[in-house]
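Tokens for chain A. Residues wanted.
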């Protein structure tokens, strides 16, 4: 599915610092709107992660769809443990397309129409199986699980010093026709070289 470059990028993303400020504002705003005042710390962390997932959707470009293959929705598949915080994204749009969340069953394959795959809590074999289904397909893959990039994923989230951070595997990203904002790439931390990341 083709999505135009966001106008925000031209106005605010001329430096990593500017992009970081925009990401933080959007992330916090989404986290706040998806939580009640009495939300526990774990829910706050999940909501912030969901906001970062949404930001990656906004600042990634997909190749144009084949003629006749256009569709009205933007599909985000969730594999592994349910991640309720992502439900807030179903009220939002990416590139003018309504986000649709698809929770996959334990042995369910990726839907034929899929733009993003979010993995959480999968075992080694299950993760390898689902990532194998994204091969040669323009599907952005993200996860908070350690070692996700080394296992073939593109974006791995983690927390350090009480801050949400992320790694991006260029080696895995470059196998697709996806393009993540260059300024966003500058904010990413390197995948450990010993594991064959970027």
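Reply:
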């Amino acid at each position: 599915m083709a999505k135009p470059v966001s106008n925000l990028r031209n106005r605010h993303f001329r430096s990593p610092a500017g992009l970081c400020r925009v990401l933080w504002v959007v992330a916090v705003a989404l986290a706040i709107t998806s939580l009640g005042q009495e939300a526990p710390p774990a829910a706050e962390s999940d909501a912030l992660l969901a906001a970062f997932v949404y930001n990656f959707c906004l600042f990634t470009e997909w190749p144009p769809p084949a003629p006749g293959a256009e569709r009205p929705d933007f599909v985000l598949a969730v594999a592994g443990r349910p991640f309720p915080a992502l439900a807030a994204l179903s009220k939002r749009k990416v590139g003018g397309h309504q986000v649709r969340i698809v929770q996959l069953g334990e042995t369910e394959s990726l839907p034929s129409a899929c733009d993003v795959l979010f993995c959480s809590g999968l075992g080694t074999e299950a993760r390898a199986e689902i990532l194998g289904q994204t091969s040669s397909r323009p599907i952005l893959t993200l996860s908070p699980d350690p070692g996700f990039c080394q296992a073939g994923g593109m974006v791995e989230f983690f927390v350090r010093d009480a801050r949400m951070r992320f790694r991006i595997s260029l080696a895995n990203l470059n196998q697709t026709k996806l393009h993540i904002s260059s300024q966003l790439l500058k904010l990413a931390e390197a995948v450990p070289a010993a594991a064959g990341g970027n």
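Residues 135 and 148 are 15 Å apart (CA to CA). DSSP finds six helices and nine strands in the chain.
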